[in-house]
Specification:
6 helices; single chain; two-stranded antiparallel sheet; 172 residues; Chemotaxis protein chec; 39% helix; alpha+beta
């Protein structure tokens, strides 16, 4: 007998059909039993480069909203408007599929022409267009490489020589 997972970390690739329905992989459908929410996270609403959607059980969504509210700097009304502007109605899994609101699909560039990447984050999921996720990953890798290079060029302790300079010197 196979083990039932309570959280999922991984990726799956699927396509939307013409009615904006997305098939959820069979192995994780049980994580979306009951009511859940599909929404655009606050940060991605303000930054089109990280446009994606999140699928989350309704109870976890309520906790998520409270945690965000605790860290929000600004007007409470603005926060509610920001948070709820990408909110989609609650839904349930039907026949292994969910239907994503057309406006949310448009926002996240899920147009039916490209594959949707379902990225598992425990018991919630992020939905990315394959192209947007590739762009984001490329930028993140570039930032990581730049940070690593800066670290290598920092002076190393008392010697006053960077790790990179020392490695170059040692090669000659």
């Amino acid at each position: 007998m196979s083990e039932v997972i309570s959280q999922w970390y991984g990726r799956a690739y699927h396509a939307l059909d013409v009615q904006n329905r997305l098939t959820i992989p069979k192995g994780i459908q049980h994580l979306l039993q009951g009511t859940f929410v599909v929404f655009a996270p606050v940060l991605s609403i303000k930054d089109e480069e990280i446009a994606h959607l999140i699928i989350m059980p309704i109870d976890d969504y309520e906790d998520y909203r409270e945690r965000l509210a605790d860290h929000y700097e600004g007007d409470a009304l603005d926060f509610r408007l920001d948070l709820l502007s990408g909110y989609s109605e609650t839904m349930t899994l039907v026949g292994g599929k969910i239907t994503i609101d057309a406006e949310l699909c448009k926002y996240a560039k899920l147009d039916g022409k490209s594959r949707v990447v379902i990225v598992g984050h425990g018991n919630s999921f992020k939905l990315w267009s394959e192209e947007k996720l590739a762009e984001r990953n490329k930028k993140e890798l570039k930032k990581l490489a730049e940070r690593n290079m800066q670290e290598l060029e920092k002076p190393d302790g008392d010697k006053g020589v960077s790790v990179l300079s020392r490695k170059r010197r040692d090669r000659t």
